[in-house]
Amino acid sequence: MELAERIVKGDRRAVARAITLIENDSPEKHALLKALHAHTGKAYLVGITGSPGAGKSTLTAQLIFLLRKLGLNVGVIAVDPTSPFTGGAILGDRVRMNDHALDPGVFIRSMGTRGSLGGLARTTKEAVRVLDAYGADVILIETVGVGQSELDIMNVADTTVVVMNPTAGDHIQTMKAGIMEIADVFDINKADLPGADKTEREINNMLDLLHDLEWRPPVVRTTSRNPKSFQSLWEACSSHRSHLLKSGRWETKRKKRRQDEILGIIEDRIHRSIRQWMVQNHSWQQILSEVDAGKLDPYQVADQVLEWYNTTVSHPK
């Protein structure tokens, strides 16, 4: 496929075109991803997540500077809130990371969540594969901002960085059951503000309660006033990567990611087939009316739909 060949050869315009095709769910998408598959699996994926206002974009920009000084090619997927009017990302890559927009060793793409509740766009994984095939050594994946249910990043990234502010100390206990448990590295950003010591102490106290940790997430501090502080963050990420490789967890995580991707594709195709059937089935509105009237219950209807799927789609005559 010509577009795939251009991506592998380092054509930036081809990368932009490919991600647009993916976001728009173009019929060409599957052939493209199939052609790129053999060229993926080399990039190191770092997820950057945390509450809105934690400084994730500033932190990402600083990491790009550092990685470029190390001679690494960098890809960035910045997942932003979706505009209710255009369906696109409200915030743009050049608005937030303008200093890197013209660097040939950096490719930045903003993607709207488009209704996804997991802090990531549905097409994030596919866009990551494009940047991987393009030759990015490190791909930074910045989420839209997290809540208790927005944990998708841990299923995409090799290393997940949870970004917090010094004022977050009082809220750590309430976060423990969710986002706090996915961190491979904790970063206290804006660490020049009051409260950094308390926040670090609270995080370590929480970690002390978790026994038999195969990997104890390090707690680092960063501040834009001291760009060198981001070196410690990258070193913490690199240490986690080394741990994954030495322990065998690297391949285990990637196998699980491949399995989840396959299951996701299967679920998406089944979902599309059933929705198409609902649209085309003239009796569907009548079925819904019977559910409203209590003549049918949702479980009966679900069984009927699955029976139709199994007999008509899975085992066509």
From TrEMBL:
Protein species of origin: Effusibacillus lacus
AAA+ ATPase domain ranges (all copies): 42-187
Sample GO molecular function, one term: GTPase activity
Entry protein name: GTPase
Pfam families: MeaB
Entry keywords, A to Z: Chaperone, GTP-binding, Hydrolase, Nucleotide-binding
CDD domains: MMAA-like
Record-stated family: Belongs to the SIMIBI class G3E GTPase family. ArgK/MeaB subfamily.
